[in-house]
Write a structure and sequence with these properties.
The complex is a heterodimer of chains A (277) and B (339). Chain A has 277 residues and is an alpha/beta fold. Chain A has helices at 40-48, 91-94, 113-118, 133-145, 161-174, 191-208, 219-225, 243-246, 249-256, and strands at residues 2-11, 14-24, 29-33, 55-61, 83-85, 98-101, 179-183, 211-215, 228-233, 236-241, 260-264, 271-275. The longest helix of chain A has 18 residues, at 191-208. Chain B is globular, with a radius of gyration of 20 Å. Classes of the chains: A alpha/beta (277), B mainly alpha (339).
Chain lengths: 277, 339
């Protein structure tokens, strides 16, 4: 479980996140929604430790320290007493708790898919990056999980958006962390890839007991695939809860400055957000 | 060719070493070289003409060959490191101003006292290193735009700073030494020092600098995905970048100390290696080091031959080959949308 408490972040004088608190349960997908500029990407970056915080606490109740995807289906012992203060951990230690899937844009042309996913093993390697047979095994498995084994020899710079996104997901899986953060991974994908990617992410959360926080643009993807939704507006969390609780006409209209209607999905048991009266 | 990169580059280096020892005002044929070598190994006395050759080799050709080799290695290695660090195919110790900065530092140390002792000479690369660090920090902050360092900014800031540092160096050199030729050779990049002292003085700087760079390939690979992703993958980015910067600057300072500012080796060699053997920095760094040594040796042989018995500063040769290459890369980089 990932727990964020009272997180505040400023860029220079401008405060972009105010006192954000959030919990992401293991085995669940939590969608982070909100208008452009609300601070979704900033929140992901702040939690991952690449920008300094003004204040706040980021901790993890590590279900499976050194969670091992090779011995899959065995998510470690439920030692809920172990708290890790992620904020104070050095990058290498933190990268064993928490992995990030960025948007697959402008990937360097030099590396193959295999080499790229192997870099996910960095938190367990020395400065030279020497890998073992076990690391290779984990990479193999990660690629298998995202159905990208056949891409292994391709160069990441030459992949399509959907392929690149799956490869970056595999790289994050190779980090073998109990927490997964995704920063608008579906933004550049077509409908088919959006759906298959979200299916994949939800499956991983369920099967591997990962705590998944995913920033999403598309409210209806959030409605369909998230267990919980957090609505971020102007750097503040306005609401958290199930999709049904958060995706209400009042909350969404207010957040996006747009009249919306929420109707039941014609064949799924989820809400459907439609702009207009 | 992709499969045996080290074999190719080492063959090139071996050939370059052989040429560098054989060619000069007196040509020493490979056969004679072989006789001298076997003579030394079997401890038999050499004929009189061979003894002259042997003296030329040990006192002139060999120290120079080793100095050129080390200088080229440093330029190739630091060029590859800067390119990786700035994620910029045009970064080169010369073009981003580090080499000129180091040259200025070295010139200051020399102008205080043109030293010939080992310890006196050691001050030269040390001053060069400090100046190189200052130069790179200055150019970096001048060129930075938010979190990124655009190629154009980097090159513009580097070239401007370079012009400034070179002017100061020229002033110092012309003022402090009566030997204009030596001053010019230093400014244009050329080898004028003789004997083993320069080699011994830069060796510790090179060993530390290049030694660390060879080990930093994995970190540089991670940095190709950007600072954020590198850190999220577990790399302590600030520390890694600082260490790589220091190591590359150490190598640059060592290269510049006794040979002056030699441009474009640090640009061309990593580029060619990348084209031939791919951009994995774990391989690119050692290959650029070996390739840099070979390329500068060949340039130096050319510099000794074209106007024999007079000698051209090697920097002229590398610039004549390098500037057109730079323009070609610039065009290519533009087409690939680097800026």
């Amino acid at each position: 479980m990932l727990k964020v408490e009272g997180l505040s972040v400023s860029y220079g004088q401008r405060r972009v996140l105010h006192n954000v608190s959030l919990e992401v349960n293991s085995g669940e997908v939590t969608a982070l929604i909100g208008p452009n500029g609300a601070g979704k990407s900033t929140l992901v970056r702040a939690v991952s430790g690449v920008i300094p915080l003004d204040s706040g606490k980021i901790s993890s109740n590590d279900l499976s320290r050194y969670y091992d995807p090779v011995d899959s289906g065995k998510p470690g012992s439920d030692d809920l007493s172990r708290h890790y203060d992620l904020r104070s951990l050095p990058p290498m230690q933190r990268a064993r708790h928490l992995a990030v899937v960025p948007q697959a844009v402008s990937l360097p042309p030099a590396f193959t898919v295999w080499e790229t996913v192997l870099m996910g093993r960095t938190p367990y390697l020395n400065f030279l990056g020497q890998t073992s047979a076990r690391d290779e095994q984990i990479v193999h498995l990660a690629l298998q999980k995202v159905d990208a084994l056949d891409l292994s020899e391709r160069r990441v710079g030459e992949l399509s958006g959907g392929e690149g996104q799956r490869v970056l997901l595999a790289r994050a899986l190779a980090q073998s962390t109990p927490i997964l953060l995704l920063d608008e991974p579906t933004s550049n994908l077509d409908l088919h890839y959006q759906v298959s990617f979200m299916e994949l992410v939800r499956g991983l959360a369920r099967n591997d007991k990962l705590a998944v926080l995913i920033a999403l643009h598309d409210l209806n993807l959030a409605a369909r695939y998230a267990d919980r939704v957090a609505l971020l507006v102007a750097g503040e969390i306005k609401a958290t809860g199930t999709p049904r609780q958060v995706l209400t006409p009042e909350l969404i209209s207010d957040a996006y400055h747009l009249t919306v209607q929420v109707v039941p999905h014609p064949f799924m048991d989820t809400p459907l957000v439609l702009p207009g009266k | 060719m992709r499969r045996i990169p080290y074999l190719w580059t080492l063959l090139l280096l071996a050939l370059a070493i052989l040429l560098s020892i054989a060619i000069g005002s007196v040509f020493i044929s490979p056969a004679d070289l072989w006789r001298i070598l076997t003579g030394w190994l079997s401890a038999t006395s050499l004929s009189e003409s061979l003894q002259t050759f042997a003296f030329i080799i040990t006192s002139i050709r060999l120290p120079r060959t080793v100095l050129v080799l080390l200088t080229g290695a440093a330029l190739g290695g630091s060029g590859a490191a800067y390119q990786g660090l700035f994620r910029n195919p045009l970064a080169d110790p010369y073009l981003i101003g580090v080499a000129s900065g180091a040259g200025l530092g070295a010139a200051v140390a020399m102008s205080i006292q043109w030293p010939y002792t080992f310890w006196g000479l050691l001050a030269v690369p040390l001053a060069g290193f400090l100046a190189a660090m200052l130069a790179i920090l200055l150019v970096y902050f001048l060129a930075r735009l938010g979190k990124t360092v655009p190629t154009t900014n980097l090159i513009l800031a580097g070239v401007a700073f370079s012009a400034f540092a070179t002017s100061l160096t020229s002033f110092l050199m012309l003022r402090s030494t009566g030997e204009l030729r030596r001053a010019f050779a230093f400014l244009l990049g050329g080898f004028t020092q003789t004997g083993w002292n320069p080699v011994l003085t830069i060796l510790p700087f090179l060993a530390i600098g290049l030694g660390f760079l060879v080990l930093s390939g994995h970190a540089l690979n991670l940095l190709q995905f950007g600072d954020d992703q590198a850190q999220q993958l577990g790399l302590p980015v600030t520390r890694a970048k600082t260490l790589i910067l220091v190591a590359a600057s150490l190598a640059t300072a060592a290269a510049v100390s006794f040979s002056g500012v030699i441009g474009f080796i640090g640009l061309i060699v990593p580029h060619v290696m990348r084209l031939w053997f791919g951009a994995d920095y774990r391989r690119l760094l050692p290959l650029s080091i070996i390739g840099g040594a070979g390329a500068l040796l060949l340039a130096d042989v050319l510099a000794r031959v074209v106007m024999a018995p007079q000698e051209l500063p090697v920097g002229i040769v590398t610039a004549l080959a390098g500037a057109p290459f730079f323009l070609w890369v610039l065009r290519r980089a533009k087409n690939q949308g680097y800026w």
